[in-house]
Amino acid sequence: MEEPGTIYFTGTAGAGKTTFVRAFADWMKSAGYETTVVNLDPGSESTTLDPAVDVREWVQLADIQDEYGLGPNGAQIAAADMIALKIFDIKQAIDELKTDYVLVDTPGQIELFAFREASKAIVDALSGDRSQIAFLFDPALARTAAGFTSLLMLSATVEFRFRLPMLNVLTKADVLTADQLTELARWASDPGELYEAITRDSPTPDVQLSTELFRAIESLGPLAGLVPTSAKEGTGLETFYQSAQRVFAGGEDLDPSHAPSPEKGP
Ligand SMILES: Nc1nc2c(ncn2[C@@H]2O[C@H](COP(=O)(O)OP(=O)(O)O)[C@@H](O)[C@H]2O)c(=O)[nH]1
Ligand SMILES: [Mg+2]
Description:
The protein has a domain at about 5-145 and about 160-175 and about 225-250: P-loop containing nucleotide triphosphate hydrolases (Rossmann fold, 3-Layer(aba) Sandwich), CATH 3.40.50.300. Strands 3-2-4-1-5-6-7 form a seven-stranded parallel sheet, with helices on both faces. The chain is about 50% helix and about 10% strand. Helix 2 packs antiparallel against helix 3 (about 70-95). It has helices spanning about 15-30, 60-70, 70-95, 110-115, 115-125, 140, 145-160, 180-190, 190-200, 205-220, 235-250, and strands spanning about 5-10, 35-40, 55, 100-105, 130-135, 165-170, 225-230. With about 270 residues, it is of the alpha/beta class. The longest helix has 26 residues, at about 70-95. Magnesium ion binds near residues 17, 18 and 108.
C-alpha cells in the first residue's frame, strides 16, 4: 500500500484547527476517502474532534500538571517531550488503521508546537514522504495588512522549522464580506498589494522595516493563493482537498535529508 498522505494543521490559538479537521474529515468521508483523525494536543478539551488516535491515551496534560506542579504552558512543554518518547506507539496506532489520509490536529497555541525541538522529532517520526502542513489564517488576525503580514511570517517560520510543504488556508470565510475576501486574495497573490496596504494603514511607517519586511515576503515567493474555507458552512473543503492533492502529487520536499540518495556509480 502506498504511504498515507499526512496533513498537519497548524495556526494561532482559535484559528479553527480543530473545527476544520473535523469538518474536513467529514467531507472526505462523504467524498469516499478514508481518513484517520489524530489529536496531538494533550490538553485538548474538544468534544467535536472525535479522533481515532488520541495522544491523550498516552499523555494527559492534567496528569502532568498535578504530578509535576506545572501550569498549563509548562505542562505542554513537558508533554511534548513525553509524546516524543511515545511516538512509535502512536505511529503504530495510526498505521494499523491503514487509511489513505491522516489528518493531525496540533496543540492550540502554535508556539508550543512549532517552536519546540520535540515537535520536530514527533513530526519527523510520524511523517512519511507524503506529508504537508496546512497553516490556518484566522480572519480575526488576517483582516488587517499588519496581521496578515504577521501570519505570513509565522507560516514561513513553521515551514523553516519543519521543512515540509506548506498550504495556507483562510478559515471562517463566512465571517468576512465578499470585499474583504477579495482583498485578502489580492494580498495573498501579490506582495506589492500587501506592501501598499501596510504603508496605507500606518501613516508614519517605519520605512526601513516595512521595506525589509516586503523584501522578505517577496522572497517567500507566491503563496499559491490562500484557500478560503468555512468549516461552519462546509465551503472550500473540496478546493482545499485539491490543493493538498497537488502538493502530495508534486510538492517539493524541502528537507535535504529526505532527498533520494544519489545513484551509486558502477
Ligand atoms: N464562524 C465560524 N466560526 C468558526 C469556524 N471554524 C471555527 N470557528 C470557531 O472558532 C473558534 C475556535 O475554533 P477551534 O477549532 O477550537 O480553533 P483551534 O484553537 O485552532 O483548534 C470556535 O469558537 C469555533 O466555533 C468557521 O468556519 N466559521
Ligand atoms: Mg484546537
